[in-house]
Prior knowledge:
By secondary structure, the chain is mainly α. The chain folds into two domains: 14-101, RNA polymerase sigma factor, region 2, helix turn helix motif (Rna Polymerase Sigma Factor, Chain: A, Orthogonal Bundle), CATH 1.10.1740.10; 114-211, Arc Repressor Mutant, subunit A. Helix content is 62%, strand content 2%. It is built from nine helices and two strands, in the order ααααβαααααβ. A two-stranded antiparallel ribbon has the order 1-2. The N and C termini lie far apart (64 Å).
Amino acid sequence: MAENESPSEPWRGDATERRLVREAQGGSFEAFERLVAAHQGAVYAVALRIVGRVHDAEEVVQQTFLSAVEHLRAFRQEARFGTWLLRIATNHALELLRKRSRRRTVSLADSSTEGEEPLPHPRTIAPWRDAPEQIASRRETRQLLDDALAELDEKHRVVFVLRDIEGLSTAETAEVLGISEANVKVRLLRARLMLRERLTAHFGDEGRRVVAAQHH
Length: 216
């Protein structure tokens, strides 16, 4: 723990974080422990939503902080420490998915055709029975959202997790993933559209449901 700082001292935001990063870079393991305590919850939440398994998420968290220790002195505080950690965690989570599925490496890099791909066309349209904030407050909604997220491909799921669940800005999400802000916005829109259709099956008003015409 940093000198003259009690265990119960409240987290004061960026100023405290910058100081702790400097102390950790200087060799203070106690300062690094405080950084871990402040961010491990967010890192675990992101990891779990990407990999979908508790054991794998725990492995991602461990790998994230090991990588953070190894590369801490290279961190120049040009971004927030939490953003830097989430980028490391996202990379480890995606690498674990690639190993698990034994698929060809999935690239999150910008695609020249990203903005040219058609947006998902909803097959089922219905106003929701209740307001979104009421739905979001229900206990069962989290599991439904997790199940719907699991059906998305990695590049859309990760953007939704970082932007809409973890609350990162568009710029921070772009930095974490190494893509442009424009691509973050496009992927987020696609993710929202796909998720809305999946959740409409549970929350849509049956009496006002419309099945969209299929285009051939």
